[in-house]
Specification:
globular; 45% helix; alpha/beta; nine-stranded mixed beta sheet; Spore Coat Polysaccharide Biosynthesis Protein SpsA, Chain A; 15% strand
């Protein structure tokens, strides 16, 4: 029985050696009492064959699960959680990312030394396969570490950080079972706050030990309406869970702030920056749902510190008149393209 299980959801990642590089970064971990649970999410490329080949080379260390249907990343992670029932700790790694060789040994040692039930690290974004960290991107702050009091919990609700940069005691996901939503993107956003409500002690390593791969030239302009709708659904799930576990009333301001930022602001801006034909009805519905849930969001104590003047101006205009908002946004975007070559 492995002490640590690292769950890797896989969908069509065989190309360019991405999947093999990811899995080999786990096979090369300095922590030896670690199993890799790779869940192929009904890939249509050679991902499953790549995984089976690596499994044959590493019996007992790599376990491959083939999902009969595509359940998206959340569904694949859920299959992995169910398979990791005998492990004490679980982590998650995306199939096009990779881990520094000592990532899980350091996280596990830190958790054991401090009694924490979750620990994380920072990340660095890279556009090539390398184990040399570049600029560190902070995922969580050291002020969030230690036994979780009210102040730290509020801070973690506002900024839970990525699920993939952390190691958790498996019991966090049990009693009652906590699972990722399936068949949508942004599944991390949906349950990140629910995870925070179950954490009693968090520790952090302020080093970029997780490598987040981004294809060179990738752009937010490729966003789709499905991605926008998935982000919105993830935030609806967050609110439902907060009301079910009883934390919504106490942490209303934190949930309201996160809903505004992720449900409304991020969706609004990514939608308008995309190349999709703009639908006034979609934008109108976005604003109406924000106000239906949080009519007084502007009074939130986090609203001014977490937004800039332009974001607040755009928000006010869109909620007042979607038509005028679309005209203004289009004019400003055209001006910036002509003068600065910017795409937003």
């Amino acid at each position: 029985m492995a002490e640590v299980s690292v769950i890797v959801p896989v969908y069509n990642m065989a190309g360019d050696g991405k999947l093999e590089y990811c899995i080999r970064s786990l096979l090369g971990q300095t922590l030896k009492n670690l199993e890799i649970i790779a869940v192929d999410d009904a890939s249509t490329d050679d991902s499953l064959e790549v995984l089976k080949g690596l499994e044959a080379e590493n019996p007992g260390r790599l376990r491959v699960i083939a999902s009969p249907d595509n359940r998206r990343q959340g569904g694949a992670r859920n299959l992995g959680l169910d398979a990791a029932k005998d492990s004490d700790y679980v982590g998650f790694l995306d199939a096009d990312d990779w881990a520094a060789p000592d990532l899980y040994e350091r996280l596990l040692t830190l958790m054991k030394d401090t009694g924490a039930d979750a620990a994380g690290c920072d990340l660095c974004r890279v556009g090539e396969h390398t184990m040399v960290p570049t600029k560190r991107e902070e995922c969580n702050g050291m002020s969030q570490t230690g036994v979780i009091d009210d102040k730290k919990r509020r801070s973690l609700l506002l900024n839970p950080g990525p699920v993939v940069t952390k190691l958790y005691r498996r019991e966090i996901f049990e009693g009652p079972a906590l699972r990722f939503p399936e068949r949508i993107a942004y599944e991390d956003n949906a349950i990140a706050t629910a995870i925070v409500m179950r954490i009693r002690h968090y520790e952090h390593i302020p080093e970029p030990l997780y490598f987040y791969y981004q294809r060179p030239g990738s752009t937010t302009r490729s966003i789709t309406i499905k991605q926008c709708e998935d982000r919105m659904e993830a935030m609806r799930i967050m609110l439902r869970q907060a009301k079910e576990d009883g934390s919504f009333a106490k942490y209303h301001d934190e949930y309201e702030s996160r809903f505004y930022l992720l449900f409304y602001r991020n969706t609004l801006l990514s939608y308008m920056q995309s190349d999709m034909k703009k639908d006034a009805g979609f934008l109108r519905g976005l604003g109406e749902e924000l106000l239906a849930n949080f009519p007084d969001f502007r009074k939130n104590p986090y609203y001014l510190p977490q937004t800039n003047e332009e974001e607040r101006s755009l928000t006010d205009l869109q909620l007042r008149s979607t038509g005028l908002f679309m005209i203004r946004y289009g004019l400003v975007r055209t001006y910036r393209r002509l003068r600065y070559g910017k795409q937003s």
